[in-house]
Amino acid sequence: LLDAGRLQDAAVAVEAVKASGNTGSAGAHWRIAAGLVTWGNGDLAGARENFEAADTLAHSAANGSLAALPVAFNAGIYLSEGNAVYAVKLLREALPTLSASGDLDHYAYFNGIYGRALIQSGHEGEGAAYIGKALELADHLQDKLRIRQWSLDLGERAFREGRFFDAQNHQQRALKLFDESQHAPEYVNALCAAARTHLAIHNLDIARDLANKALGAAQQGDDASALVSAQGVLGSALRASGQTADGLPYLQAAAAAPET
Fold first, then answer.
1. What is the pLDDT of residue 4?
2. Which long-range contacts (C-beta less than 8 Å, at least 24 apart) are formed by 209-218?
3. In Å, what is the CA distance from 259 to each residue of 191, 247, 251, 254?
4. Where are the alpha helices (DSSP H) in the chain?
5. Is the CA virtual torsion 56, 58, 62, 68 positive or negative?
6. What's this model's pTM, rounded to 2 decimal places?
């Protein structure tokens, strides 16, 4: 539910979990669910408090496997705050337990988060290897959301390293897994990333088409940052195609937008 952005439905589900008990393992499950909803609502301090309470409850029930989950989710919070080094420390603690527990869904996901944390803390090669492992596990699980997510991460790294055809392959795979009708900012950003890759290899017609598609999706959505990205990449694509006069208004709009 959280992955689908359905926070109200998720909150109802949390109350259902709470009804099963608020002590021991049942209480830990409730606190984890509550932490995820709180995180989804942007309250990082509240989410961290819930995850720490879940850790305590799981340990009180001698459920070490369950206790690894709130530790891993807390690592995700620290990573979102820019503290990649501490996220790495927490995930090094949690991942072996998640692996031993047989919880393949979470183990697969947190391999990718660990990879991101490693990259952000300066361990690019090792981090990319963990994201690649996460993608393999997502393939095994047929988890389209995570296949999309990790493909985009690997595409971004390939782009940074100038491996544009590798980037293109990862991005094409990810784009096929979006529901285009949702106009989600993740979809807009993926289109923008693909457009930049095609610009880099001088596929200007495709770059313009992707950028136009990104702008259309962004205008249908409500994410200001995604709209700015789409305007910027479309302006760049038009300018690279020799249509400077057409591209300039988009570049100006992107430059004038307030930082989000």
1. 46
2. 211/236, 211/237, 211/238, 214/188, 215/250, 217/180, 217/183, 217/187, 217/188, 217/191, 218/183, 218/185, 218/188
3. 21, 21, 15, 10
4. 7-18, 24-40, 44-60, 64-80, 84-101, 104-120, 124-141, 144-160, 164-175, 185-200, 204-220, 224-240, 244-256
5. negative
6. 0.86
Q: Which residues contact 146 (CB under 8 A, 6 or more apart)?
A: 108, 109, 112, 134, 135, 138
Residue pLDDT, tens place only, 176-199: 999 988 889 999 999 999 999 999
What are the pLDDT digits (tens) for 96-141?
A: 999 998 899 999 999 999 999 999 999 999 999 999 999 999 999 9
d(CA 173, CA 238) in angstroms, rounded, equals 25
